[in-house]
Design goal:
GO terms for molecular function: hydrolase activity. It comes from Cryptosporangium japonicum. This protein is of the alpha/beta class. It has a single domain, classed as Rossmann fold, CATH 3.40.50.1820. The protein is 34% helix and 16% strand. The strands form two sheets. Strands 2-1-3-4-7-8 form a six-stranded parallel sheet, with helices on both faces. A two-stranded antiparallel ribbon has the order 5-6. The longest helix has 14 residues. The protein starts with a strand and ends with a helix.
């Protein structure tokens, strides 16, 4: 299977380096993406939109033959879901890792501190403690060393979806810094961040208890979970 790996904010394709060997050992062809504006600290990212990120994923889908699986981390869930909306007949499954699909009209996060059209990665003190589980000082340095400011619009642009066939594409949600019960509760309570999950017809939950960056804290286990989902 062709597996397209979509990073979250601040990260490029190399953030999946510790996950790809396990997927390749399982026989999959792996395509880790670096989204527009994340190529280097010097990239011009102010004009780059959420749709530009979606278009980059759709272009990679179109460049491959046959069905694909999308794997999204964190804010990459908005990108993956919009790519499914654009190509529902080409995506066999989406694996949301510490992530979830973002509904039409919603955004990833419009409260992150930004300046000059970009969002630098906040200091570790910005995050809740449950998001930092298993991230020792070495792993934190590794993430910060590769972190690049993200285009602000990747987080603040409103999602635009139009094809309800997206609800027919099965998904796996890998719960890391929250649990399945928490997500089901958010769906019942009508939280906007969970609304789209409740509309998808085939949803599988897999627990991988760790912090918000499992590709760093539990990469081999994450590779196994993704391979099992495929």
């Amino acid at each position: 299977m062709d597996v397209i790996l979509i990073p979250g904010l601040w990260l490029d394709g190399s953030s999946w380096n510790a996950v790809t060997p396990g997927l390749e050992a399982a026989g999959h062809r792996v395509h880790p993406l670096t989204l527009p504006g994340l190529e280097s600290p010097d990239a011009d990212r102010a004009p780059i939109s959420l749709r530009d990120h979606v278009d980059a994923v759709v272009a990679r889908i179109d460049a491959l033959d046959g069905p694909v699986v999308l794997v999204a981390h964190s804010a990459g869930g908005a990108v993956a879901h919009a790519a499914v909306d654009a190509r529902p007949h080409r995506v066999a499954r989406v694996v949301y890792t510490a992530s979830e699909p973002v509904a039409d009209g919603e955004c990833v996060n419009d409260e992150l501190p930004s300046a000059n059209g970009e969002i630098p990665m906040p200091d570790w003190s910005f995050w809740d403690a449950d998001m930092l589980v298993d991230l020792d000082e070495e792993l934190r340095r590794s993430i910060l060393d590769r972190a690049v400011p993200s285009p602000a619009r990747a987080a603040t642009d409103r999602q635009t979806l139009s094809d309800e066939r997206r609800y027919d594409v099965p998904i796996t949600i890998v719960t890391c810094d929250y649990t399945e019960d928490m997500m089901r509760g958010w769906i019942t309570e009508g939280y906007p961040s969970a609304a789209e999950v409740g509309r998808i017809r085939d949803v599988e939950f897999v627990a991988l208890p760790t912090g918000h960056w499992p590709q760093f804290s539990r990469p081999a286990d994450l590779a196994r979970v993704i391979a099992d989902a495929i």
